[in-house]
């Protein structure tokens, strides 16, 4: 990777600004880390951590009731935590956007990640969430932008699935 | 561990502290509510709020158990100049209690959580709940760093609690210790999409539906 390349996270941050995303909530993942830092530094974006991804759909619903757009950042393992809570945004037709960094796929070292990683997209789709996948760093910004539009213009529940190939496989040394 | 005589087997039993009647308590807390924004759920908390009168600024959640406080928190962050109230039950908030520390670290001064604590899973046969077996929700909220935490066991303290909801520097929690009786269901509109539109139109104006 070119060391002058600001990375896909910076492009996503700029899209958040451009599309008036005002709340960003997260259970941290290393892949999202630069994006989380940018959001926390920005006084126009109200960002904070969750103890559990389950809180995400509720907070996004509350933000929308109050007139603000929000995004949930999480790792694929968090998807299993939000399934019942998705009923809130689904039933009420509330725009919902989550950016999911994948584990348990491309070259995964930790076998414990495979259970949720291999069922992430199936589970989300079964719950009525549109999944848009980015398999390369160049894909991320256009996929995020189209997903922002789908969520907030078409009142959809949308997940951007960011392949483990984009982040590189986590190495334990 | 002997469960036969343990706390989870107990039914009824004498209450050592005075207990509020839940419906009267909620109705009193919502007197002169003004433009308070309310998120309520799941079941019986909604019937109690609804018995105080229908209002466009009530958003009722009849599913996604554990989502009442997160929804109220997202709303409080979006609307920092408005007062926001979450009305929930002991089992509802305990399903996702991590939301209490999440709220504490965001420090929403305009948010109050009212927990109607009957010590029971009231909707499912009145089984003893965690609080009924001694878990102290108010103590946990205090430990999490809430600005104001009050346990109310007596009706004479409800006026102070109402003042916390309307004027207190939050995040605040009010735990209402209520008896186990379940008043009559007062069913609101159940269509969440309709409740959402009504709420947003009232709060944000008629153009909200065009966003």
Description:
- The complex is a heterodimer of chains A (173) and B (211).
- Chain A is built from 8 helices and 6 strands, in the order H-E-H-E-H-E-H-E-H-H-E-H-E-H.
- Chain A has 173 residues and is of the alpha/beta class.
- Chain A has a 6-stranded parallel β-sheet, sandwiched between helices.
- The model of chain A has no long low-confidence stretch (mean pLDDT 95).
- In chain B, helix 1 crosses helix 2 (44-51) and helix 3 packs parallel to helix 5 (99-106).
- Chain B has a single domain, classed as Thiamin diphosphate (ThDP)-binding fold, Pyr/PP domains (Rossmann fold, 3-Layer(aba) Sandwich).
- Chain B is an alpha/beta fold and 211 residues long.
- The chains are: A alpha/beta (173), B alpha/beta (211).
- Chain A binds chain B through residues 22-23, 46, 48-52, 54-68, 70, 84-88, 91-94, 152, and chain B through 37, 39, 59, 61, 63-79, 96, 98-99, 101-102, 105-106, 192-193, 195-196, 199-200, 203-204, 208, 211.
CATH class identity of chain A: Alpha Beta
CATH topology of chain A: Rossmann fold
Q: Largest beta sheet of chain A, briefly?
A: 6 strands, parallel
CATH superfamily of chain B: Thiamin diphosphate (ThDP)-binding fold, Pyr/PP domains
CATH C-level class of chain B is: Alpha Beta
The topology string of helices and strands of chain B comes to: HEHEHEHHEEEHEHEH
DSSP E strands of chain A, number: 6
Global outline of chain A? globular
The structural class of chain A is alpha/beta
Task: Give the oligomeric state.
Answer: heterodimer
Strand order of the largest sheet of chain A: 2-1-3-4-6-5
């Amino acid at each position: 990777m070119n060391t002058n390349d600001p990375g896909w996270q910076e492009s996503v941050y700029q899209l958040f600004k451009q599309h008036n995303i005002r709340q960003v909530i997260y259970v941290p993942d290393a892949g999202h880390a630069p994006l989380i830092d940018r959001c926390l530094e920005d006084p126009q974006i109200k960002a904070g951590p969750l103890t559990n991804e389950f809180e995400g759909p509720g907070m996004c619903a509350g933000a929308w009731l109050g007139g603000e757009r929000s995004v949930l950042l999480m790792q694929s393992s968090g998807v299993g935590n939000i399934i019942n809570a998705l009923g809130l945004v689904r039933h009420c037709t509330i725009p919902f956007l989550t950016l999911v960094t994948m584990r348990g796929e491309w070259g995964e070292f930790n076998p414990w990640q495979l259970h949720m990683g291999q069922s992430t997209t199936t589970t989300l789709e079964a719950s009525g969430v549109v999944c848009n996948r980015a398999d390369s760093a160049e894909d991320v910004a256009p996929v995020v932008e189209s997903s922002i539009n789908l969520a907030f213009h078409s009142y959809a529940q949308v997940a951007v699935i960011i392949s483990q190939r984009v982040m590189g496989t986590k190495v334990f040394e | 561990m002997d469960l036969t005589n343990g706390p989870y087997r107990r039914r009824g039993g004498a209450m050592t502290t005075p207990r509020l009647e839940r419906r009267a308590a909620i109705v009193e807390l919502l007197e002169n509510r003004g433009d308070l924004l309310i998120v309520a759920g799941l079941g019986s908390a909604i019937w109690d709020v609804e018995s105080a009168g229908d209002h466009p600024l009530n958003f009722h959640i009849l599913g996604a158990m554990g989502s009442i406080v997160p929804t109220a928190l997202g709303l409080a962050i979006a609307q920092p100049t408005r007062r926001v109230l979450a009305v929930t039950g002991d089992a509802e908030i305990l399903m996702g209690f991590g939301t209490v520390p999440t709220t504490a670290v965001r420090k929403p001064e305009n948010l109050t959580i009212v927990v109607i604590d009957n010590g029971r899973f009231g909707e499912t046969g009145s089984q003893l709940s965690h609080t009924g077996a001694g878990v102290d929700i108010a103590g946990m909220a205090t430990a999490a760093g809430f600005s104001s935490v009050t346990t109310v066991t007596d009706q004479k303290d409800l006026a102070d609690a109402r003042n916390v909801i309307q004027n207190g520097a939050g995040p605040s929690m009010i735990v209402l210790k209520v008896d186990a009786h379940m008043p009559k269901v007062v069913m609101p509109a159940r269509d969440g999409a309709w409740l959402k539109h009504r709420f947003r139109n009232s709060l944000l104006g008629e153009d909200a539906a065009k966003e």
